[in-house]
Amino acid sequence: MPETAETILSSERLLQAQKLGQAVIAEVGRVFIGNPTIVEALLLGLLSRGHVLLEGVPGVAKTTLVKAFAQVLGCQFRRVQFTPDLLPSDITGTYILDPASKDFVLREGPIFAQIILGDEINRAPPKTQSALLEAMQEGQVTLEGQTRTLPQPFMVLATQNPIEHEGTYPLPEAQLDRFLIKLSVGYPEAQAEKNMLRAYAQAPSPPRELLSPPVILELQRLAAAVHVDDEIYDYVLELVRYTRQHRRVALGASPRAALALLHAARARALLSGRDFVLPDDVKALAAQILAHRLMLISEAEMEGIVSASVIHEALQAVAVRPSERRRSEAAAAPVTPRRVS
Ligand SMILES: Nc1ncnc2c1ncn2[C@@H]1O[C@H](COP(=O)(O)OP(=O)(O)OP(=O)(O)O)[C@@H](O)[C@H]1O
Ligand SMILES: [Mg+2]
């Protein structure tokens, strides 16, 4: 009998997914001390088959965080330090002459790993950035006319310093759209920073491997099976349409952005042990998923308006409305909630 969404998301699997998620967040939290919602966002990115960009000033533990997260996943991972002289082939790989066979063989670049840490991605020139970003979008790399598929799971965790910094090449908007989530890593709260100072008297032991490629693929499959009600579709649509009509926005959220928001909302539901998405999942993620994809008109930037405030405004303005179907169901019979853990 083929599995349906109902049977895929058994209560045991939901509970297991939730527990695994909590364990990952706690384990990374031993090394990256402070904000667990940032770690949760990395996990949401992974479960929704997306890529994550972290932005923050030097010394806020961006590298520490992505490294710890990658270690917990139990996948093959490679780190690429982006520098101004990095070439596209340093990422994708090159054909070299094999003296034994006298034939050209591919020396695979770091892109062929499962988890890629693209550190300080905005320090490399655009051509090199696009070698990475194209692979992210297509899940494959074409070298000398030959297309090779990238391994699964495949996730890019990139870091960048704020774009005003000297000697950087800001990622163009179209490229930013390749990232499911963009996170700002700020300074920790005073108490968290004190905890970090205490905990780092001795460097903590490296994080344990808690996941593995098959487990991650299974979690991704479960996340994709999470139920989305009609009213949630309408809610997401209204939010993205709000950004498109906003007078301060030159380029609003795309259908790809709407899809990204839904994928991440499903993953958030799964991590909470639920087999259905709530409006709160959408609300909690809207800024992280949509803000970096908006382009504001230049006057707005001069007035100090930022994309995140447009998303905030959209969340205030757009209400969750019960769908037509839900209204007629409610009229016919009392609403029985789906399974709640
Ligand atoms: N919240 C934190 N938790 C744990 N360690 C932290 C935290 N904040 C800073 N550190 C420590 O500060 C140091 C710098 O961290 P890291 O190199 O990861 O920063 P970064 O954001 O990548 O900086 P850069 O932009 O210069 O590369 C590390 O030793 C790290 O352990
Ligand atoms: Mg760093």
Q: Which distinct ligands sit in these coordinates?
A: adenosine-5'-triphosphate, magnesium ion
Under the CATH scheme, which class of the largest domain?
Alpha Beta
CATH topology of the largest domain: Rossmann fold
Q: Beta-strand level of the residues, as a percent range?
A: 5-15%
* Major sheet: 5 strands, parallel
- Quaternary state reads single chain
Separation of the first and last Cα atoms? 26 Å
Number of domains: 2
Q: Name the helix and strand elements from N-terminus to C-terminus, one letter apiece.
A: HHHEHEHEEEHEEEHEHHHEHHEHHH
Shape descriptor: globular
Contiguous low-pLDDT stretches (5 residues minimum) are none
CATH architecture of the largest domain: 3-Layer(aba) Sandwich
The class by helix and strand makeup works out as: alpha/beta
Number of strands: 11
CATH superfamily of the largest domain: P-loop containing nucleotide triphosphate hydrolases
Count, helices: 15
Q: Give the strand line-up of the largest sheet.
A: 2-5-8-1-9
Q: How would you describe the overall organization of this protein?
A:
The protein is globular. The longest helix is centred in the N-terminal third of the chain and has 21 residues, at 11-31. It has helices spanning 5-8, 11-31, 36-47, 62-73, 89-92, 126-138, 173-176, 190-199, 213-224, 230-245, 255-271, 279-290, 298-302, 307-317, 324-332, and strands at residues 52-55, 77-81, 93-98, 103-108, 115-119, 140-143, 146-149, 155-160, 181-184, 249-251, 295-296. The mean pLDDT is 89. The chain is α/β, with parallel strands linked by helices and 341 residues long. It has a five-stranded parallel sheet with strand order 2-5-8-1-9. Strands 3-4 form a two-stranded antiparallel sheet. The protein starts with a helix and ends in a 9-residue tail after the last helix. Helix 2 packs across helix 4 and helix 10 packs across helix 14 (307-317). It has two domains: 1-225, Rossmann fold; 226-335, Magnesium chelatase subunit I, C-Terminal domain (Helicase, Ruva Protein, domain 3, Orthogonal Bundle), CATH 1.10.8. It is 48% helix and 14% strand. The protein is built from 15 helices and eleven strands. The structure holds adenosine-5'-triphosphate (ATP) and magnesium ion. Magnesium ion binds at residues 62-63, 119, 159.
